[in-house]
Specification:
This is NAD(P)H-dependent oxidoreductase. Keywords: Oxidoreductase. It holds the Pfam family Flavodoxin_2. Belongs to the NAD(P)H dehydrogenase (quinone) family. This protein has 255 residues and is of the alpha/beta class. Helix content is 33%, strand content 14%. The chain contains six helices and eight strands. Strands 1, 2, 3, 4, 5 and 6 form a six-stranded parallel beta sheet that branches. A two-stranded antiparallel ribbon has the order 7-8. α4 links the parallel β3 and β4. α1 runs parallel beside α6. 30% of the residues are buried.
Amino acid sequence: MRALILLAHPEPRSFNAHLATQAAEQLRQDHLQVDVIDLYAQGFDPLEAAHHHPQRLQPGRFDAQREQRHSAEQGQLPAEVQRHLQLLQATDLLILQFPLWWFAAPAALKGWLDRVLVYGPMYNSRQRHEHGVMRCKRALLSVTTGSSARACAIDGREGDTRLLLWPLMYSLRYVGFDVMEPHVVHGVRSGLPPDRVQAHDEALATAARDYRERLARWSQWPTVPFNDSEDFEEGVVLRAEAPAFSPFIRHRDAG
C-alpha cells in the first residue's frame, strides 16, 4: 500500500513538518510506501493560470476547467502537476498536513487543489462523490491551530474548527475519497515567555506520540459521513427524508 503526505508550511523546522515526518516514519514502519511532498520546499506554484497551458483549446479566453481537461487529453499538463497527479492516483492514503491560517488552509494548499485535482482525470459529471476516481481510498486532514481547544470548540470564539474544515473535506469527498475525521492539534504557538516553553514543548511531544499511535491504526480511523447522490432530488436538492450531516447541507426548516 502507498501513502502520500502533503506538507503545506513554509518553515522546515515547524511542528507541522515534524508531524509530517512522524507520520512518514510510522507508516513506513507499518510497511507502507510513503511519498512526501513539501509544497514550499519544492516551490510549487499555487496559481492556476493560462501560462500553465501553452497548447490552448481557447487561446482568446482562459477557462480553467476546459484547459485542464484539454491539457490532460493532449499529455500537456505541467510536469509538476503530472507528477503530483500520478502520486495522488497511486496512493491509498492521502494526508494533508497544514496549519489553520485565517480560518482556512494556507494558499499553497488551496492552489494545489486548484491545479492537481484536474478536471477530467480526477473528476467529471459521472465520476464524483461516491462514484469518484478516488473511491475506496482514504484522506486525512492533519491540522494545527494556535488557539486552544476550548477556543476552537463549537461555542468558542475562534469558531468550530471541524466546521471550518468541512469545505476542504468535501472537496476530497467530491473526488471520491473516504474522508477520515480530522486530526487537530491545538495550542501550537511560538514566541511564548520562557516559563511556558517547557510545558508547551512537552504537550507537543505528547501530541506527536498520540498521532503516531492513531496512525498505526489508520484503516480503522472513523470517517466523516456525507450524503450520497440518491439523497438529492434530481441530484440537486436534499430530499425531505434524507439525513443531514452538516450545517453546510441541511434541510430548509432546520434553520
